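Morning, I've got a small favour to ask if you have a moment. I'm working through a protein record and want to make sense of it properly. The fold is given in discrete form, as structure tokens running alongside the sequence. Can you walk me through what the tokens say about the fold? Thanks so much in advance, here it is:
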Amino acid sequence: MRSLLTVSLLLAGLIAGGPALAAPEDPAPAFDRAADPVRTTEPDGALGDLLPFGRAVGSASVISVGEATHSSREFVTMQHRLFRYLATHKGFDTFAREMSWSTGVRLDDYVLHGTGDPGAIMSAEFDAFYQVFDNAEFLDLLHWMREYNRTHTHKLRFMGNDLSFPGPVLFEKVTGYVAARHPELREAVEHLYAGMAPAPGTSLNEYMAIQTGKSLSEREALAARAKAVVNLLRAAGPGESRAEFDWAVQHANALAQSFREYAFDTNTEQGRTEAGRYRDQVMAENTEWWYRHRPGGIVVSNMAAHASYVPIDPELAPEPASAHLRKRLGPAFRTVGFSFHDGSFNAKGPDEKYRSFTLGAPRAEQNEYTLDKVAGKDYFLDLRTLPAGAAAWLKTARPTRTIGGGFDPGAPHAGELRVPLGRSYDMLFHFHHVHAAELRFG
């Protein structure tokens, strides 16, 4: 027999139009108990406060970090700090960034051998939507990687896992390999690549304008020619050096990826979505290729939408790179999200110019509002080890600040996406206040 209290509660629910429901549990106390404070976001100095992060990483060897903005100082320096920790404590050796494979090749040559000026490379190749990465904090990371390699036998590497710019260096790498190892293919490869490489000094913006100004059939033909080179190399086989062959094929494949991206019809919504789907697939493929061909772990730096396991930006990233990598790498792969309560960042405004924007305290319905209830301001959470109530709260999608290269302050709830943090990431760093990174261009 039901108690009078039970009957009363049921009646109250019926009167209100439905069954009585318990108020959702506030997860903040659970977050407070589980949070590990972060001493600093600056990369220099002791790393002891990152030991909880290291335990959460465990035996994983590819860690994707999803930044809440592309150009806040604390996000750049904290990724630098995480990479230092993983390099010195867990044998990680590669920092990967959401930028073109060809740019990565040039920056890798700098951190390995000191070839070129990294600032000049950034100024030349961090163009279009990559320009927001052109900041002093990122340059500091490259300088540190180079200095580390001067004094350590365990060498650090740099990788760009994206596809937008088919830089001249890749054409040089592929044709140089063919001339040295498969001269019988030289004429065919040069014919297929004819007119495809950017002219010296051509920026990504300029090259994109040239390619998108061509008809769809012309772009599809270029994609087919780039893919034909990959097929020729694969058919020729590795010859005397498997390593040289693998790198040459990957450089040729990176070129084919770029030209395939240009072959999508981005004048339509479907075409833009398919281009976004392909881009994340490629970022995952390139990351996996590097993982399979090199010892040591990888830190992958990218936007939150690419780092999430579930799609939080259906047009930009309908199948996020992290979803692909989890399927491909299993427990060797983990994701980390970044969030912030308030502060500033750089982005391109409605006038197409980059500048700093500032956001104040979040609204009560945003994830950041509850996350910032934790004492100690900046902290780390392993989202997989939280009690059931807090874990359930994290699985619900709520408005969350996720700001890429562009920002319109006049738009309602600008820079927000609905993110279920617990289904998107394995771990989370939350920062109370952030500052805009120091841009290297005016």
Notes: Confidence is low (pLDDT under 50) at residues 1-23.
